[in-house]
Specification:
This protein has 393 residues and is mainly alpha-helical. The protein has 19 helices and no strands.
């Protein structure tokens, strides 16, 4: 078979592994993490030598993975709704405190897991795929292959860790809301009670929407990535932070469309490319590493959960949002992100009642907190933290 033939074979296998993960994720209604399934398939394939260690390179994905992340970070900046963050400022503050608690908790177990493992894991626990790509990429560049693999595994299983407590404490909060609603102390917002939608100013991007074609949107994102890299070279400020800020500012002022790469219809491919960039770290894992990695994962997540319970649930920090249970749910959102936080909130309401008004009352309390917490931590702040922590390796 020719090199081109092998390239398409390995591309097919790479996409297939992710497709299997997606299928099982949908089939189990997100009970099984699609990312975990894909990572597990790659890990087994590498360890059994059924797939080559340089599979991503042979699939022709290495270069696209390298330039996809900066574009995707700029895109995530254009997704940030500043008004929503301001309206839910208590949730944002609670999410930030929860992230700080996570940092403290993981730093506390450095004697058990090692400094590099803690530094790589913290931004990933605080965030999602972009933070993972930043930290694992930096770890591999510096020769910390096992640490990079640890970071990938942290990302792969964090939803397993975050979902049970987010659901448990959300259910407790939902039951309290239900009791108050049935007692007549609160009311659900129905369509006829909603405030009229105010006319919004027509922005430059909206006025010139037809000109923001796929290539125009891609060009803007690429320009932002280039500018961010120049800023890093001149000032030392990590390019990820600059790209995120550029996206937020340009979107907020209406200079570019919201979710710019969704409009370009390329965000799905770029996300896949970033996912693919994590895979090479798994190729370095040997059977002898599994015990060490398993121990580190157990210690890191145990420290995070216990630390969060002690410093959020037991200490009066929860008073910022007025509820211990809601505060714990917000703290777990950094492990989940959107859409997992939205799906969990809906599952809680559905599990507690069949009445639509009662569901609305529960959702009115839980959805803004869970979704905004995920937006603040995973989409926004974790990228900034990763930009800072990458310098600590």
């Amino acid at each position: 078979m020719t090199n081109a033939g092998y390239m398409f074979l390995f591309l097919f296998l790479t996409v297939l592994f992710f497709a299997i993960g997606d299928f099982l994720g949908v089939f189990t209604k997100a009970k099984l993490s699609s990312v975990f399934v894909a990572m597990f398939l790659f890990l087994v394939g590498f360890m059994t030598k059924m797939i080559p260690a340089d599979m991503i390179q042979k699939a022709g994905l290495s270069q696209s993975a390298a330039w996809s992340a900066p574009l995707l970070i700029f895109h995530m900046g254009t997704m940030i709704n500043i008004k929503e963050l301001i309206d839910e400022w208590r949730t944002v503050v609670m999410a930030i405190i929860s992230m700080i608690v996570g940092i403290i908790a993981v730093f506390a177990v450095i004697p058990l897991v090692g400094k590099e493992a803690a530094v790589v894991s913290i931004p990933i626990i605080n965030g999602g795929i972009i933070a993972t790509q930043i930290m694992t990429g930096a770890a591999m560049e510096k020769g910390f292959q096992t640490v990079a693999a640890l970071g990938t595994l942290v990302y792969a299983i964090q939803k397993f860790v975050g979902t049970p407590p987010a659901s448990y404490f959300g259910m407790r909060e939902g039951r309290k809301v239900l009791e108050q609603f049935r007692a007549g102390k609160i009311q659900a917002v129905t369509d006829d009670k909603k405030a009229p939608v105010k006319e919004t100013k027509i922005t430059f991007a909206k006025k010139n929407e037809k000109y923001f074609t796929s290539f125009t949107c891609m060009a803007i994102a690429a320009a932002a990535a280039f500018i961010s890299r120049i800023v890093q070279e001149k000032t030392g400020l990590n390019a990820s932070i600059t790209a995120l800020l550029l996206g937020t500012i340009l979107s907020y002022t209406g200079a570019v469309p919201n979710a710019i790469l969704d409009k370009a219809k390329v965000s799905g491919f770029l996300s896949f490319a970033v996912f693919a960039s994590l895979i090479p770290s798994l190729a370095k894992i040997s059977f002898g590493d599994l015990t060490t990695l398993g121990f580190q994962l157990l210690i890191i997540f145990a420290a995070f959960v216990i630390g969060t319970y002690l410093l959020i649930y037991l200490l009066p920090t929860w008073k910022i949002v007025g509820s211990r249970d809601l505060a714990m749910g917000i703290a777990m959102a950094q492990l989940l992100g959107f859409p997992a936080t939205y799906l969990i909130a809906n599952e809680i309401a559905t599990a507690l009642t069949d009445d639509e008004e009662e569901k609305n009352a529960i959702l009115k309390r839980i959805i803004p907190a869970y979704v905004v917490a995920g937006l603040a931590s995973v989409t926004t702040i974790s990228i900034i933290i990763a930009g800072i922590f990458v310098e600590l390796l």
